[in-house]
Design goal:
By secondary structure, this protein is α+β, with helices and mostly antiparallel strands. Helices cover 26% and strands 35% of the residues. The structure holds zinc ion (2 copies).
């Protein structure tokens, strides 16, 4: 996922990339772990423009994933959307010469800039991080998911068990019984 500086101008240039999960080592690893399985292809669209030695990139990545619902434990398919803004700044030859490379990198990162050198920018790692950050920590199949019944364990989206109607706290039931015995 490379942008060449000579393709860019002060006007926003559109780019579309169709990538596969295996192009992203971290996404591949996450898929293998099974918590969030990416489906090919991943659709990445962005706009980039050059402002002097800086390149501003704005875009979004879209991927179909299979996840496990945190409430009902069923597997479901969902579209993951990651929007991002990335600003790159070029290391000038004089920065490289003075050996202040690390210093410049630190300074740039502090203000949210990503340093690059040469005539091209490889967006892969940064876009990958944006996609990873878009993965929900506690995925749910639907806002209305009713989850599993805490008593019988059945999926309340699929079956209407009768636990709720007779859900009297067993400790209270015991107390009631004791009272009657005392009289
Ligand atoms: Zn669910
Ligand atoms: Zn139940």
């Amino acid at each position: 996922m490379i942008i060449h500086l000579d393709e860019l101008s002060g006007k926003i240039q559109a780019f579309t990339f169709e990538k596969r999960t295996k192009d992203f080592p971290v996404l591949q690893e996450i898929s293998m772990a099974g918590d969030c399985i990416f489906t090919d292809p991943l659709d990445i669209r962005l706009g980039a423009k050059r402002i002097g030695e800086m390149v501003a990139v704005e875009g979004r990545a879209m991927a179909t994933v299979r996840m496990t619902c945190n409430r009902c434990l069923s597997e479901f398919e969902s579209v993951l959307r990651a929007g991002f803004t990335l600003t790159y700044t070029r290391r000038l030859p004089e920065d490289l010469e003075t050996g202040d490379d690390e210093d410049m990198e630190l300074q740039a990162e502090k203000i949210g800039l990503i340093p690059f050198s040469g005539e091209e920018i490889n967006l892969l790692e940064d876009v990958q991080s944006e996609i990873v950050m878009a993965i929900p920590m506690r995925p749910i199949c639907s806002e209305n998911c009713r989850g599993l019944c805490p008593q019988c364990g059945s999926n309340r989206n699929e079956v209407a068990c009768r636990c709720e109607s007779r859900s009297v706290d067993p400790r209270l039931a015991v107390l009631k019984g004791l009272k009657i015995d005392d009289q």
